[in-house]
Amino acid sequence: MGIKNKIIPSTIILKQHVHRYTFLGLAIAVGSIMIASFIVSYQLTGRVDLDGFVAAQMSNPAIWILDLTPLMFVYWGQAFCAGVVNKAQSILTDTKEQFLKISGNLESELKYESNHDNVTTLSNSRMFSELVTTAMEQLGTKGQLAVIIIEINEFKNISYNFGTSNANNVLKQFADKLKLILMEPYLLESCMGLCSAARFHGEEFALLIPRLKPDFNANELLSALHRSTTTQVIIDGMDVNIATTSGLAMYPTQGEEVDILISQANIALHHARQQGLPYMVYQTEMKEDFTQNHMIMSALKHAIENNEVNVYFQPIVNLATRTIIGAESFVRFEHPQFGLLNAEKFIPLIASTTLIHNLTTVMLKSVIKQLTNWHDEGFKIYAAVNLSTQDLSNRELPIFISKLLDDYEISPEYLKLEFTEKACMTEQTITKEVLEQLSAIGIKLSIDDFCSGYSSFVYLLNFPIDEVKIEKSFILNMMGDVKKAKIVKAITKIAETLGLAIIAEGITDEETLKHLSELGCCYGQGAYFSRPVDAAQFKVLLSRKKAA
């Protein structure tokens, strides 16, 4: 029942209460007159009867005044109380009108907020699903539409390093960019309907492209979209470059329900991210891979939380003496269904998640603990741990490692941290800060897979690097490839000039080992010495005088 319908019955009930109490007051007044008259009658005549009652009424002025009270109750009570009721009704009516006005505005606001993202003002996932559903119903089975899921790359680093407020500002700027993109010619020309944008959660956005034209080309659209969303945003007065990864799925060929279509677009996005691509269109075979990857990630998360990952070690050898001077650590994971998995299988799956931080923590603890055991047994070697791009943007990492070394009483010189050139490219200011703090502690820093595609000697000059590792693709078959041999020689000379140690990866034979030694490469690792093995097997290698 509405407010208006409730007010009228309420005032009627209030009037009924007024009438009831007026008649009650009247009865009390009449009763009081009767009692007073009989008392006076008894005082005058010594009896209580009608004659005495009349005599009392005629002889006592006080009773005359009392006789007026019923009239006062009837007239004044009714008039006054009726006024109160009318005033109450007026107040209720005014309040009702104000409430209806406020509730109407509030209802509109609540409806808007329930359908829109409060940070960017774009449609939210709920509203987007409704828009897609409506577009599907309008199309039936005679047309096509596309759903695109877009993620801002490295957004978690932006949030972590610049704070939530700045991160929200980035989202607003990106949303404004999407609104402009909706009017871009390449988007308008691809369909015959009105495109829509939405923000789902975090750094994830979505586009609806309805009523696709017959000549629609998904890859061309995604390519143009990627160029448009590779843009600059302003954070604390600084221009910061951002890029995106996108996945696209089409109705009805790749999904006939909203949730399925959005899920397929997400699967395409994750495949693109895993393969280092800016975008991908959903393919049926992706789902099987996605399901398998989800199973791996779920089991890996459990293994990390319960410290059940396996750490393997590969010896790093002094090429001149053939003795083991260090060990590079490798993570392995025993999946109940897929067996023992190496890092290449699951690291790309978690590279952009918080699991990578957790895995690094587990690895550092395990490796430093193992170092303690080796040192106690008389093997004074160092151990190397690989860091991810996210790790290099973690300002708390130097403090954590320093405390860990203190807890296990390991000198910093026995820990080496490796990272790729690609990792140096992201958030260079923060990366440099983190690396300088690690170097100040006394930890050795090494660029892994040097010259593997992101080479810039600027990193060797600007960052506190102690060592470079030549990517194994240059070492393999080096003896039969003159160009590879020349590249290895050039890298060795540059490292020597800059005072950097150099390690050759992927040594598989004696001939390559000797040639590397002749080129001035002092250290190496590879299958020629040993493949990665567990701690027990590595101890056997340490017990030997020479590695090969």
From TrEMBL:
Naturally occurring in which organism (per UniProt): Legionella fallonii LLAP-10
Which top-level group of life is the source organism from?
Bacteria
Under the heading SUPFAM superfamilies, the entry gives:
EAL domain-like, Nucleotide cyclase
Concerning InterPro entries, the annotation shows: Cyclic-di-GMP_PDE-like, EAL_dom, EAL_sf, GGDEF_dom, Nucleotide_cyclase, Rev_trsase/Diguanyl_cyclase
Q: Which Pfam families match?
A: EAL (PF00563), GGDEF (PF00990)
Q: What is this protein called?
A: Diguanylate cyclase/phosphodiesterase domain 2
Domain (GGDEF) ranges: 143-285
Alphabetically, the GO molecular function entries are: cyclic-guanylate-specific phosphodiesterase activity
Q: Where in the numbering of this chain does the EAL domain appear?
A: 293-546
List UniProt keywords, sorted A-Z.
Answer: Membrane, Transmembrane, Transmembrane helix
Q: Where are the transmembrane segments?
A: 21-42, 62-85
